[in-house]
User: Which sequence fits this backbone?
């Protein structure tokens, strides 16, 4: 599965399970948050990625 | 004939504002200014057209603030009321190509002003927009600027004047799926035999029916039991051990890295960094978990939410790297991942 900020690019290159990320230079983080909040944000994205992996899809799917 | 009025769109790099560190530069319009590649276009336009304004926008800004950037730019273009809108050329810069395609398409659709752009065939913007706007096919780097504007300028003039546009092979734009009937000089059997003779002699020939380049794979079945699954991390964001021991190139990577993270609980400023030259590296260098989330996966592993985090991760820089190279890398390490019993992969991109 693909964690990616610009999801249309992910669609073009053919990923099947896509989870949107935060920003191009820090897809799984946000330097504006404090460390704990940032880690929680990252965990949320990773958990969504795992959920995507555990979900059957029959074509390209963005897990918003 | 009166000169056509052109509004030109470029990114922060071609406006000489800066590289990746300035990619969040907000959109602005410079009325009456010809900037960067606009000079080369102007030379090619001669007396046919002139750039009346240049819009500059950072690539990250455009893609991350899509609605606002689009609305602002459309309002400015509307006010300038040009005869034609030109974006780029973007060569192989992915976000720039997507921005050029997006804004050119919006200008045509929402303002009814014809638009053209240019980029390298492998730029993701090409596949996204080649059926919507004329995209001139360029080389993969700015070294191809001369060649690009030679095709882009005349096409912009033709489109601006509403003249009939010839076939893609004549005008230099990417095939856009539009088919036009015409009579060939030679009949089909003769052309086919000529092609065959060239092929048998190892000479170059041009097919009349190119195979589509679909790169789609069927989705894998869902992972049934995450709590016992082995998960691996792969990234095109260039995360490497500090010092980049295998010298992965900052762009157009020729290889990938395989690194052992057995016992690594957290990627720190002292131990990991990014080799990627296509985005502002400050945040990834401070904390590489922002690109490759090792810390969170270790927590999930400890809590039993996943079986284990695979002890190797694979990495390269996706910046300007040829699709063919990426495919070759992935073919090789996918096999390793399979042999190592990995159940699923999380691929992160910047």
Assistant:
């Amino acid at each position: 599965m693909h964690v990616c900020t610009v999801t249309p690019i992910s669609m073009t290159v053919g990923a099947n399970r896509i989870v949107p990320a935060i920003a191009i230079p820090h897809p799984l983080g946000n330097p504006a948050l404090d460390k704990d909040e940032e880690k929680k944000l990252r965990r949320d994205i990773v958990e969504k990625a795992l959920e995507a992996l555990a979900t059957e899809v029959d074509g390209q799917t963005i897990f918003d | 004939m009166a000169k056509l009025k052109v509004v030109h769109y470029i990114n922060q790099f071609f406006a000489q504002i800066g590289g990746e560190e300035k990619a969040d530069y907000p959109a602005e319009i410079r009325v009456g200014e010809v900037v960067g590649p606009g000079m080369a276009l102007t030379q090619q336009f001669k007396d046919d057209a002139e750039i009346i304004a240049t819009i500059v926008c950072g690539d990250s800004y455009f893609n991350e603030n899509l609605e606002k950037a689009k609305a602002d730019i459309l309002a400015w273009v509307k006010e300038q009321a040009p005869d034609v809108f030109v974006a780029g050329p973007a060569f192989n810069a992915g976000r720039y190509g997507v921005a050029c395609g997006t804004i050119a398409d919006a200008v045509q659709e929402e303002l009814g002003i014809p638009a053209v752009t240019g980029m390298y065939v492998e730029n993701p913007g090409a596949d996204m927009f080649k059926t919507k706007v004329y995209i001139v096919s360029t080389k993969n780097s700015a070294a191809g600027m001369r060649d690009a504007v030679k095709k882009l300028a005349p096409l912009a003039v033709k489109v601006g004047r509403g003249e009939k546009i010839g076939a893609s092979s004549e005008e230099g734009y990417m095939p856009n799926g539009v088919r036009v009937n015409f009579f060939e000089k030679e009949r089909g059997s003769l052309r086919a035999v000529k092609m065959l003779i060239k092929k048998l002699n190892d000479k170059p020939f041009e097919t009349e029916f190119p195979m589509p380049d679909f790169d789609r794979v069927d989705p894998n079945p869902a992972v049934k039991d995450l709590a016992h699954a082995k998960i691996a991390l792969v990234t095109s964001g260039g995360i490497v051990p500090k010092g980049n021991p295998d010298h992965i190139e900052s762009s157009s990577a020729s290889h990938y890295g395989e690194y052992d993270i057995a016992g690594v609980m957290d990627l720190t400023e002292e131990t990991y960094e990014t080799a990627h030259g296509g985005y502002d590296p400050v945040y990834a260098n401070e904390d590489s978990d922002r690109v490759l989330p090792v810390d969170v996966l270790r927590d999930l592993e400890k809590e039993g939410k996943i079986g284990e985090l695979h002890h190797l991760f694979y990495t390269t820089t996706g910046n300007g790297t040829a699709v063919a190279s990426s495919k070759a890398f992935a073919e090789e390490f996918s096999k390793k991942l399979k042999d190592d019993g990995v159940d699923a992969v999380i691929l992160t991109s910047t």
Remarks:
- Residues 4-171 of chain B form a domain with the Rossmann fold fold (CATH 3.40.50.2300).
- Chain B has a mean pLDDT of 95.
- The two ends of chain B are 47 Å apart (CA to CA).
